[in-house]
Amino acid sequence: MSTQHEATRHYFQAVDAAFDALDRIFDTEGIWVEKHNLIYQIVNLHLGHLRWAFECWKKNVWFVDKFNIDLVDSGMPTYQHILQLENDRARLAEQLAELPEPGQIKNEMAELLLKYKQFPDGLQKTMAERLYFDALQKGPVFRPFTAPVTVKHAYNKRSKRPYYVVHWSLYDGSNNIPVVYLAVIEDSSPDAPRPVPKRSGPWGDVGGDTLLGDGLPNKELSDAFTAFVKSHGQYSLTLTSIATTMDKDFPTLHPKQLRRFVLGPLYIGGITDHHNRVETVLSGVSDPQDNWLLNWTLQELLSKEEVETKNGLWSRAVPQEIYHIDTSDLDAAKNGVSSQEKHALVPHQAFQKAYATGAAKEIFDGYQCYVASGDHIIRHV
User: Fold this and answer.
1) Which helix (H) or strand (E) holds 293?
2) Over the stretch 83-118, which tens digit does the pLDDT of each residue have?
3) Dist CA 28 CA 7 (whole Å)
């Protein structure tokens, strides 16, 4: 196997191990899941799409010239590969019609080997391409932008407004990193749709959240809202910047809560570039399944009050959200959020080396650290 293919295999082994460990955290870490139950469900949905994208890329690397990873910053595939998945999804039916079935390819490979004593290099690539498009057909993958979906539509008795709980995601092309958003938004539009109460019938429960779906329930604002979050999803924008701009651009939409989940960076020994402390730890672990470090961040912005403001002497007053920024937390203040949680996930062998060399405190300072040991997760405080 070539050095390039060996490095690629190493990369995907580390990614699989990291996702397996992350799944175990979500399955067993009661504190995190209980504290963020809804964001956990939403994040888990989007990460499932990302993981399936990696399954497709595993097959894709066998018939493309090069698979590019952001080696310096995120450790994730570069944006071009996300775009390629999107383009290939658009021509899926055409490609599947043109490519032979896997059984036919196997027969041709066997004939070439046994009858003509030739190694089927070309057919191997054809098989990889067929399996790649089959995988694309089997499940949704993480997209450049996944449009907002409303998961709850209810009524706030205090403000006397309907509100929406909505989520969306994007792959930040500047930072090569997946980002998931979850927002709680009140709607003061005169014709804002009221929640449909759930009621029981002979065919089960109807109404309520069963009627929710793509976009906002307020269809007059839905398209404009989708366009807004698509153009304001970059990780470089603070949640305060996004929420205050949304509040200004949509006078009748009131963002009361905005959350952002960012997966990464992912450090892999011998592949990604990282600061010396991390390099010292990961480079001493030979097994690809044990020489990685995965970070993720959860940020939250909360409105502390709503005030009436005027832009001019004769203009009418409009509601404006005032957001809480925790100035006692330097990270929260710097990032323009009410609160921020930083998490780190590391295999036991790598953590042990970090601990033994005295680097653990520096590397994991400010992080909630999880240590993956076999099928278990150790929550290290």
Assistant:
1) strand 292-309
2) 999 999 999 999 999 999 999 999 999 988 888 788
3) 32
